[in-house]
Amino acid sequence: MYIFNSDIIWTAIRYIGQGVGITITISCLALLLGLVIGMPLGVLRSSVSTGFLRKLTDAYIELFRNVPVLVQIVWIYYVLPIMTGVNFEPVQAAIIALGLNTSAFLAEIFRGGINGVPSGQYEASSSLGFTHTSSMRYIILPQVLRKMLSPLVNQFIVLIKESALVAYIGVLDIMHRGDLITTEFSAPLESYTVVAAYYFLLCYTASKISMYVERKYSFPE
Amino acid sequence: MTFAINNASKPADMDQPVVRIRDLKKSFGKLVVLDGINIDVRRGEVCTLIGPSGSGKTTLLRCLNALSPIDSGEVRVDGKLVTNGLPLGQKKPSQKELSKIRSNIGFVFQLFNLFPHLTVLQNITIAPTKVKRVPHDKAAARARELLELVSMSDKADVMPGLLSGGQKQRVAIARTLAMDPSVILFDEVTSALDPERVGEVLDVIRELAKRGMTMIIVTHEMSFAKEVSDRVIFMEGGKVVEEAAPSHIFSSKADARTQAFLRHTYANS
Q1: Is the ipTM of this complex over 0.95?
Q2: Which of A90, A133, A157, B3 is 20 to 30 A from B246 in CA distance terms?
Q3: Along the 221 residues of chain A, how does pLDDT read in single tens digits?
């Protein structure tokens, strides 16, 4: 029976642990990019049903939802520079690719959230003199955001896990460091078990924080 | 209490109707819902709209603050044209114009439509502070006066989800009053309430009537309509059948159709 090599485990914990920061950075910045792009797209999709802008939004969302994330990462890192002449560092390419991909999913979450607000809320705010824009800002979106916390964190957890794919373009994240330890010591069991433990801890912590925040900001219906 | 209904301080143009509806028509597809409505409501007057379901009462209210666009005719509140753009020659108002018109016309909904993410006090202050740019302290002080008026002072910091239907409706009325509207439209505001909660909401409306608030009330509470109204308007099939003082409407001198409706209503109540 194979026995865990504790020396390698300690080395793996230390070396792979140094990739936690980059995994968190990439996931957080990609989520931020996803929110910045996804929110206006979601608002647009919930309030405009025709026109060029709507078609463009639909095309964007379908494109990013239906191409594998790994292909998007590789495409932005290897292909975009050929087309535009702009070179990205692996970390930049990773954030852009994961951010754009996440924005498509977040746009749908926003659209669902906005459509889920009862029409009476729009009518009440209109009758009080709110314009469409101010009603969105003060009445609708604050409700949507609170209700979205749970799907938003789910999306963040998906993002942390998908960020493992950036190892493919050489980013020294948790996964890539695991690969290197595996090759160096020929110890996949120790190495990938540590990798799994790190991802589990990150995602589990995120979900626990979200449950706390959700309780704090929820409102009785 | 220092509270005063805004109406009392408006210019003394008592002869000018606050609400003026002329030949208002509205259809949903082939179904004619409002068929040439003409109504004037004077300042300080309490008008109740009664009639069978589907007679167009709610649609009429919704047209009065442009929640529903009209097909033709004209609605004016305080002399200003209320429009969501459809009738001939009327251009669609900008969002800002529409917002200004609506902020002068209060609307109290059957299902309250309080904002669930805000406390009771915030529900009342949000429109004055964000729409009219009233300073927050001033808006909060006024909101507390209004909460006292509707007997909800002790619930200022409670979330609406924790209130009973009657309490929600009283807050909704306070929220509407906070905008100092020229007229308040009540759309069957007691229909969604438990019977024992109806009285507390009607009490608030009675109090507003005493204080001279101009109101148009759609209701199925006939005894309330009889008691509180200056004028009762009976509608059927999208038309005004009869409008008169309650003493006439609820008597044997009323139009035969009005009497038939009232007999039917009382028989079912």
Answers
A1: no
A2: B3
A3: 677 788 889 999 999 999 999 999 999 999 999 999 999 999 899 888 888 999 999 999 999 999 999 999 999 999 999 998 888 999 999 999 999 999 999 999 999 888 889 999 999 999 999 998 899 999 998 998 888 888 888 899 999 999 999 999 999 999 999 999 999 998 899 999 999 999 999 999 999 988 888 888 888 87
| Strand-pair partners of B106 | B184
Q: Where are the beta strands (DSSP E) in chain B?
A: 17-28, 31-42, 46-50, 72-77, 80-81, 105-108, 183-187, 215-218, 231-236, 239-244
Q: C-alpha distances in angstroms, A43 versus A101, A151, A218, B7, B129?
A: 18, 17, 22, 39, 24
Cβ of residue A82 closer than 8 Å to a chain B Cβ: no
The torsion of the CA quartet B6, B10, B14, B19, rounded to 10 degrees, works out to -60
- A207 CB neighbour count, 10 Å cutoff: 14
Q: Name the minimum distance, in Å, from the CA of B251 to any CA of chain A.
A: 36
Determine contact: A121 vs chain B, CB below 8 A.
Answer: yes
Q: What is the pTM of this model?
A: 0.80
Q: Is A116 on the interface with B (CB under 8 A)?
A: no
Cβ–Cβ pairs < 8 A, chains A and B: 73
Q: Contact A102/A159 with Cβ under 8 angstroms? A: yes
- CB of A131 within 8 Å of a chain B CB? The answer is yes
When scoring A127, A130, A221 by the number of chain B Cβ atoms within 10 A, the one with the most, hence best to mutate, is A127
Q: Could A124 and B65 be called an inter-chain contact, meaning their C-beta atoms sit closer than 8 Å?
A: no
| Residue B57, H or E segment | helix B57-64
- Whether A126 sits inside 8 A of B67 (CB atoms) is yes
The string of pLDDT tens digits covering residues B134-159 is 999 999 999 999 999 999 999 999 99
pLDDT 10s digits, B61-80: 999 988 888 888 888 898 88
Pairwise CB contact (< 8 Å): B176 & A221: no
Minimum distance, in Å, between the CA of residue A146 and any CA atom of chain B: 9
Best CA proximity match to B99, nearest among A126, A47, A138, A119? A126
Q: Show the DSSP H helices in A48-187 as ranges.
A: 52-65, 69-74, 80-84, 90-115, 119-127, 132-135, 141-162, 174-185
